[in-house]
Structure formats: structure tokens, C-alpha cells
Amino acid sequence: MRVEIWSDIACPWCYVGKARFEKALAAFPHRDQVEVVHRSFELDPGRAKGDIQPVITMLTRKYGMSAAQAEAGEDNLGRLAAAEGLDYRTRGRDHGSTFDMHRLLHLAKDKGRQDELLQTLYRANFAEERSVFAEGDERLVELAVAAGLDADDARKVLADPDAYADDVRADEREAARLGATGVPFFVLDRKFGVSGAQPAEVFEQALTQAWGERSPLRLVDRGDAEACGPDGCAVPQR
Amino acid sequence: MRVEIWSDIACPWCYVGKARFEKALAAFPHRDQVEVVHRSFELDPGRAKGDIQPVITMLTRKYGMSAAQAEAGEDNLGRLAAAEGLDYRTRGRDHGSTFDMHRLLHLAKDKGRQDELLQTLYRANFAEERSVFAEGDERLVELAVAAGLDADDARKVLADPDAYADDVRADEREAARLGATGVPFFVLDRKFGVSGAQPAEVFEQALTQAWGERSPLRLVDRGDAEACGPDGCAVPQR
């Protein structure tokens, strides 16, 4: 079974939802047969690389809420994150483009390090004092290395704005096609969807349901197969 | 869309079928949105590591055919392989356990090098003079390195018989559950199956049909999602 998770590094509910999903997965009896793939979704796809602002400022501008309301929202998120065992800095975080991070996540996927890099980026963005947006490419290289990637591989991707750009956009188109309007968005075997950072019990239910409804295959061709089996291979007749 | 391909390195139809599938995929308009995953299937799962014999001998014993018939079968396979642009040594190949190669393919999957290693192993087994069975672990390390893996990573896996052993067996159980009795066996989005080295047109038809029938998702929970979207994030209420 395969679970695809669309998310953005700048999305606090994605950070929390990943932990909730992982809790459900750890308790799922068939967890060894579940493959998790992370997909890209930028909340702010047009944002320029240098356009960085404090999270509280972004929240007041985007929602028209007061700074006190924005801070209360962050405090609440901090409590919900802590309930999942996650660190969360409620003050002093900043906000910017995540496009380059998504490109690196596709590099990491190719290298079998995707989950490690996503977790490293979430932690850096939500829990660490240093910015993931304001310190330039070498900060991202450092985080890529912490996730087990090669520094030069990461540098090459960051230096070439086209590298993995199409992969990011293909993920985003696929999210739209599947009906996702926000993240985190979980897709099980391309059949079931879970929207948002639902409680672990909802993920447990989704995993159980998707597992139970794994469908029998429809064979596209039932003619004589040129194949090998335990008793030997079909012998070519010409 | 995802295509999973169960195969064995010792299976000539898998070698040929992979090329036919790839021909169809190259012509498929949505090929950039198709992910290919290779799965393990041993034709001879109980075979001891040191149990190596010439292919012709294996064929005569397994089918009770004459050496001349076995050689004619190999000649025909060689012609079919050539038609797909593949080299195929019709004489002098040997046969043995592929378990360690499958374990290495799972290492390669973790490192994003699975397709490279499978192609390297196929070529080594079917087209190169040197044996992939008779020269010990360092021969496999050499092939792993040729596919872009780290030599020490490969050595560690080969030195530990448990490394990735469960992954190989899980793939094989999954093949049985999906109804595969032989390989190559192709599964599209866990919905459509193609058995054997079918002509490229059959793979084209399967890709087109599976693409057209990608199903809408069923949402497991439609309640208020704790999520972020283009217009901002849900604000936690507690």
C-alpha cells in the first residue's frame, strides 16, 4: 500500500499532521507494507525567493488579524505541536518561498533520503532559531547534509533553478487534479483521501479501510504470457 | 500513476519485457507522471547460494528437453532480445540463486538507484561473459558500484544475510496476493495487471486504460480540516 503526502515546509499543520499520521502508522499492523512518499505543495507558489517576512507580520497582513490574535494562534499551534512531541517556536519565526526546499526534496527522493530531509526542514523551520529562508543557499546545503545528502549534489540543484522544478510543479498539478485545495493532504493507494492534520484515529481508520479494500487486479491481457514461473520459462516458438 | 514490475534477474522474459515496457512508456504522453518501481520475485527461492549450473543443463533437467532443444530455445530468445536492441549470450551462461541480487536491489531502491542496478544486473547476466553467480560477492559489489552505489554499502548488505531479506520476501508475498504466478508481472496503480513480456502495444493499451480510469478519491473524513491553503492556515481554536 502506498500513502502519498502533499505538504509544504511552511505549513504548521503539515508538521503536526505528519506526526499524527506517523503515530497511526506505527500502530498499523501492516506498516511494513506501507510505503510513504512525500509530494510538493507550495502554499505561496508565486513568492519571490528574497521575499521574507516575520510569521506574525504575514499572519496579520493575510488575515487582517491583530498581532495579539496572530500570537495567540501561534501559541495554540505550539501547544498542539507539543502534544505530538514536537518543538515549536511560537515567536521569531519567518516566512518565505519554499520552492528551493521542494526542489531539494526531489533530489532527496532520488537519493532515498526524502523523509529525512523533510523532517530536517520542518524541524529547522519550526523549532530552530536560525532561519531557513534568510541565510541563503548554504543554510539549505547544511540541512541537506544533515539529512544525509551530498553537499555538492545539493549545491548543484540550488545553483540551477530548473533542477527538479518540473517535479515540484508536477506534484502540484497532481494535487489539484486529486482535489486537494490545502495541505497536508494524504492519499492512500490513489483511492482514499484524508485532508488536514486529522487526529491519529482518523489516519488509523483510513489505513484500515484502504488496506481492506485493496482491489483485485484487472488483467489487461490474458493471452499466452511470455513469462517465467517456478516451473520454468515459456519456450519461444520462433 | 505508478507501475510496479515484479521480475527476477534470471528471467529472460523479464529482461525482454522490461525493454518492451520501456518502449511503450517512452511513447506514452503522460510518461513524466509515471513512476516505475521494481519488485522482487525469485523463480527459484529455495536455491542455495553455491548451487550454480549451466543454463542449458538447467533447462534440460527442468523440462526434460534435449540439449539441442534447449539451445534452440536460447537462440530464439537471443533473436527476440536483439529485436529489442538487447545483447543476449545464447551459450555459456549459468544459473544460480538471485536472492543476494534482490537484496541489493532493495538497497539500491533506498538510494534511488534501483533501475540502474536492475539494468546492470540484467546486462551482466544475459550479455556479459563473466558470471554473476560464480565469482562471489565482490562481483556483485562491482556491479553495484557500476550502478552508482557505494561499495561499502553493498558489502555490508552482502555480509549480513538478513539485510533486506524481509523486503525481498514481502515483495514475493505481495506478488502472490496479487495473483502473479510468473514474471515479469506489471501492476498499474494496483488496479490493472499485465502478465508476461507482452508486445509494447499491450503495455501502451494498459498505460492508456489505467490513466483514463484513475479514480476520484474517497475522502475518509470530510470534517473541518486543520490545514493550510493558498489563503492561509486554519487557526487553532484551543
TrEMBL record, chains A, B:
What top-level branch of life does the organism fall under? Answer: Bacteria
Task: Write out the GO MF terms.
Answer: isomerase activity; oxidoreductase activity
Provide the alphabetized UniProt keywords: Isomerase
Q: What is this protein called?
A: Protein-disulfide isomerase
Family matches, as PANTHER family: GLUTATHIONE S-TRANSFERASE KAPPA, THIOREDOXIN SUPERFAMILY PROTEIN
Q: Which Gene3D superfamilies match?
A: Glutaredoxin
Q: Which organism is it from?
A: Streptomyces curacoi
What Pfam families does UniProt report for this protein, alphabetically?
Answer: DSBA
Q: Which residues form the DSBA-like thioredoxin domain?
A: 3-207
InterPro entries in the record, alphabetically? DSBA-like_thioredoxin_dom (IPR001853), Thioredoxin-like_sf (IPR036249)
